[in-house]
Design goal:
Elements (H helix, E strand, L loop, with lengths): L6 E5 L6 E2 L15 E4 L1 H7 L37 E3 L1 H6 L5 E5 L9 H14 L4 E5 L3 H13 L2 E7 L4 H9 L3 E5 L3 H15 L2 E2 L8 H15 L7 E5 L4 H16 L8 E7 L4 H7 L26 H10 L3 E5 L1 H15 L5 H15 L9 E5 L24
Parallel strand pairs: 5-13, 6-7, 6-9, 7-8, 10-11, 10-13, 11-12
Antiparallel strand pairs: 1-2, 1-3, 4-5
Helix pairs in contact: 3-4, 3-7, 4-5, 7-8, 11-12
Length: 402
């Protein structure tokens, strides 16, 4: 059956060359990632925001604005429509406006990576792909392994040896071939680039296929829908490869063209760790692209990306929304993680905690005003990082009291 997808083409954001979405595509000939384009006039005619409330509470509620043509190819584990939770205690403590957390920790596989995997693997299935391959810091590999297993597609994954053990095990349990690398995700990518031609695998590295971003963009649609089609003043996103922030910006542009939101766009904030902050350095220089960040290291392992392929798209999203990029320290990440847990009952991943740390820093600098509405993205569950926090606990004798 047709999903009524309004997809029309794949377009290069740099040279504007168009490609056929019914064939396997990767990067443009000029080396840029490709973006999915839709007939937004047609989409506006066949769906309106009010009708969405009667649809299933998954990201596939926006099917007209997703790239799968035949709904028999849709692979779903119930991903999407995660809660937008008011941070009432934190707002009260710091005399803030309305601050919310979009909690991706409750999604299948425990991180927002399930969004990209759900749409990316569904489209790969539709295109007849039999093997996918990717470098990953852990969570993306686990998500793609799970959805590939559901699709009957083989997954080949390279991870840095420091990747969280839980994501390693998750990937192997799902049947993926996992190889560890003594290096960073960038080193994994280089090995994969040398290996793929010999095997004919479908390269699903970040932004090297066009469809992961389409799953991620649904976070932007959901935030607007959950705020009754009003946009917040600021959205803070922990940024590594940057697909999330690029996707949210794409969703905002599409919704504005559809007439679902007004002309105002939220200021997008790329939050990075001080130990790996190539986008922040580029922003401070007002550059259009970033430079390789040397000796990258942070406890927020998911954003430990020293050079993002889509860096120019991340920076465009920041500049075009009058947003910014901010770096936070390891201590600020841990403090924010503990604050969210103790004040809001939310045990988040270190990347999500970085988002709160970034917002607090911007509030202290008065870049974020007292009465403004802000949304931070928690990109995963804290339990996927069991070694982030270490506590020395007192023992109680079995025959004693406390």
């Amino acid at each position: 059956m047709n999903t009524q997808s309004c997809i029309t083409a794949l377009v290069c954001p740099k040279c504007k060359k168009c490609y056929d979405h019914r064939e396997i595509q990767h990067l443009c000939q000029c080396g840029s990632p490709l973006l999915v384009e839709y007939d937004l006039e047609r989409a506006a005619q066949i769906v309106d925001p009010g009708a969405l409330k009667n649809r299933s509470a998954t990201l596939w509620r926006y099917q007209e604005l997703l790239p799968v043509l035949d709904d028999r190819n849709i692979l779903s584990l119930g991903e999407g429509f995660t809660p937008l939770t008011p941070l009432l205690s934190i707002a009260k403590k710091y005399a803030l406006g309305k601050w919310y957390m979009k909690d991706e920790g409750i999604i299948p596989t425990g991180t927002f990576k399930a969004r990209g995997a759900a749409v990316g693997v569904s489209k790969a299935k539709e295109l007849g792909v039999r093997d996918v391959a990717m470098p990953t810091n852990g969570n993306a590999g686990a998500a793609w392994a799970v959805y590939a297993a559901r699709a009957g597609i083989s997954a080949h994954i390279l991870m840095p040896e420091d990747a969280p053990r839980i994501t390693r095990n998750e990937s192997v349990a799902a049947g993926a071939q996992v190889h560890l690398v003594r290096g960073l995700i960038s080193d994994c990518g280089k090995i994969l680039a040398r290996s793929i031609p010999a095997h004919g695998w479908y390269d699903v590295s970040t932004l090297k296929e066009p469809y992961r971003i389409e799953g991620k963009k649904t976070m932007g649609y959901e935030i607007a829908e959950q705020l009754d089609w009003q946009v917040p003043d600021v959205i803070a996103y922990p940024t590594g490869g940057g697909v999330g922030i690029i996707g949210i910006y794409k969703a905002l542009q599409e919704m504005r063209c559809l007439g679902w939101i007004g002309d105002k766009l939220p200021r997008l904030v790329a939050v990075q760790a001080e130990g790996c902050a190539p986008i922040v350095e580029a922003y401070q220089k007002k550059a259009k692209e970033s430079e390789l960040f040397p000796y990258a290291q942070t406890i927020a392992f998911g954003i430990n990306v020293p050079k993002a392929l889509g860096d120019f798209l991340i920076l465009e999203a920041v500049y075009q929304t009058e947003g910014c990029a901010v770096a936070v320290s390891e201590k600020e990440i841990i403090d924010a993680l503990l604050e969210l847990a103790s004040l809001e009952g939310a045990f988040v991943c270190p990347e999500g905690a970085a988002g709160l740390a970034g917002l607090k820093k911007l509030r202290d600098a008065d870049w974020l005003k007292a009465g403004e509405t802000a949304v931070l993205l928690n990109t995963g569950a804290g339990i996927k990082y069991p070694d982030t926090l270490q506590f020395d606990l007192p023992y109680c004798p079995v025959d004693g009291t406390i």
